[in-house]
Design brief:
single chain, about 350 residues, alpha/beta, Rossmann fold, 2 domains, nine-stranded mixed β-sheet, about 40% helix, DNA repair protein XRCC3
C-alpha cells in the first residue's frame, strides 16, 4: 500500500517523499533509528509513523475465540467445508474437509483410501448448497495408474449415493470432464507438477481440490539416493508449496499416505501402524485421518455375504477431538455406518499422540 493513503501529517508525508519511501512495507522493514536518520523526523513522529503503518496492516482489532465464533459469518472461508458425500462422515469431520490446509488420509492397502479420494473428486463438483465447491479436481498419481473404471462406476451411481440432491442437478454435472489427472513417479516431477501445472488450474477456477495418491511413493522410490537431510528438505518444500496453494486458492489438499510398522510398539497389529514419512511430514499437516479394515476374526464373524466394515479415525486436527466412524465401500461409494465415541478407539490417547510422529 502507498504511504500517501495513510492518515499522516503532511509534514511527515513530505519527509517520506524526500527519503524516497513510498510503501508501507519499506517503512516497516526499517528499524526506528534507521527510519529517523533517513527521513530526518523526530522520534515521536517516527513512532507515530510506524504505529500507523502497523495498524493499517493489522486491519481488524484483535478478537477473542468467542467473538470469532459469534461473528463467524464475517469469516466464511474458515467455516466452509468440502463434503465427503456422506452425512455420517461429514458429521465425524465437522462438516467435511477444511478448505485451508493439508489433510492426510493414511492406512494400509485395501482400506479404502483411493475410494474416498475418488468420491471427493465427485463431491467437489456439486453446488455449494449440496456441500461442493462447484469446481473440478486435480488427481496426481504417483505409483499406480488412475482407476478410471472405478471412477465411471462411481459416476453412474451418484443418484443412489447422493439421494439428497435432486436428480436434475446430478444430471447437469459433467463429472468426467472436470477431473484433471497427472502422473508423477519421482520427487522432481511431483514438485514441478504442484509448482506449475496445478496453480494454473486453480487460478482459472477449473479445480478446487488437489489429491496426491500417494505422497510417500516418490520418496520411497528415491530413498537410496537421498540422505535423510535431503529428504527432509524435499518434504518441507512440498508441504510449503501445498499449503500455499491451499491458502491462496482456498482449495482442500488431500494427501493419501502409506503406513509403516512401528516394531518398537507392542499390542495388536493395527495399533503399531504409523503413517510413513515421519515427523517432518506430520508437521506440514492440518489434519491426519487414518483408515483401516476390521480384524480378520471380526470379519469372519460377520458371516458370508456381509460387507466388511472399515474405520475412519481422526488422529489429530485443530478443530476436532479424536473420534472414529465405521464405513463400508460398496458399488455406489463410501458410506458411514456407526459413529464411535472416543472411548472406542483402537488406540489409547498415548498411542494416538505417538501416531502423529
Amino acid at each position: 500500500m502507498e504511504l500517501d493513503q495513510l492518515d499522516l501529517n503532511p509534514r511527515v508525508l513530505a519527509a517520506l517523499k524526500r527519503a524516497r519511501l513510498k510503501t508501507v512495507k519499506e517503512v516497516l522493514c526499517m528499524s526506528a533509528p534507521d527510519l529517523q536518520r533517513r527521513t530526518g523526523l523526530s522520534s515521536p513522529d517516527t513512532q507515530r509513523l510506524l504505529t500507523a503503518a502497523a495498524t493499517h496492516l493489522r486491519g481488524h482489532c484483535m478478537l477473542t475465540a468467542l467473538q470469532l465464533y459469534q461473528q463467524r459469518e464475517r469469516f466464511p472461508a474458515q467455516h466452509q467445508r468440502l463434503s465427503l458425500g456422506c452425512p455420517r462422515l461429514d458429521r465425524l469431520l465437522g462438516g467435511g474437509l477444511p478448505l485451508d490446509g493439508i489433510t492426510e488420509l493414511a492406512g494400509r492397502s485395501s482400506a479404502g483410501k483411493t475410494q474416498l479420494a475418488l468420491q471427493l473428486c465427485l463431491a467437489v463438483q456439486f453446488p455449494r448448497q449440496h456441500g461442493g465447491l462447484e469446481a473440478g479436481a486435480v488427481y496426481i498419481c504417483t505409483e499406480d495408474i488412475f482407476p478410471s473404471k472405478r471412477l465411471w462406476q462411481l459416476i453412474a451411481q451418484q443418484p443412489r449415493l447422493r439421494a439428497d440432491v435432486p436428480a436434475e442437478v446430478i444430471q447437469s454435472i459433467q463429472f468426467g470432464d472436470r477431473i484433471f489427472i497427472e502422473h508423477a513417479a519421482d520427487v522432481d516431477t511431483l514438485m514441478e507438477c504442484v509448482s506449475y501445472k496445478v496453480p494454473m488450474l486453480l487460478s482459472r477456477g477449473l479445480a478446487r481440490l488437489l489429491v496426491v495418491d500417494s505422497v510417500a511413493a516418490p520418496f520411497r522410490c528415491e530413498l537410496d539416493s537421498l540422505d535423510f537431510v535431503a529428504r527432509a528438505r524435499h518434504l518441507q518444500s512440498l508441504g510449503a508449496t501445498l499449503r500455499q496453494l491451499s491458502s491462496t486458492f482456498q482449495s482442500p489438499v488431500l494427501c493419501v499416505n502409506q503406513v509403516a510398522e512401528a516394531m518398537e510398539q507392542l499390542g495388536p497389529q493395527d495399533e503399531h501402524l504409523r503413517p510413513a514419512l515421519g515427523i517432518t511430514w506430520a508437521n506440514q499437516l492440518l489434519m491426519r485421518l487414518m483408515v483401516d479394515r476390521i480384524r480378520e476374526e471380526e470379519e469372519a464373524a460377520l458371516g458370508p455375504g456381509s460387507r466388511p466394515a472399515r474405520t475412519l479415525r481422526v488422529v489429530f486436527a485443530p478443530h476436532l477431538p479424536p473420534c472414529s466412524c465405521s464405513y463400508t465401500v460398496s458399488e455406489e461409494g463410501v458410506r458411514g455406518t456407526t459413529a464411535l465415541d472416543t472411548g472406542q478407539l483402537h488406540s489409547s490417547p498415548a498411542k494416538v499422540l505417538r501416531a502423529q510422529f
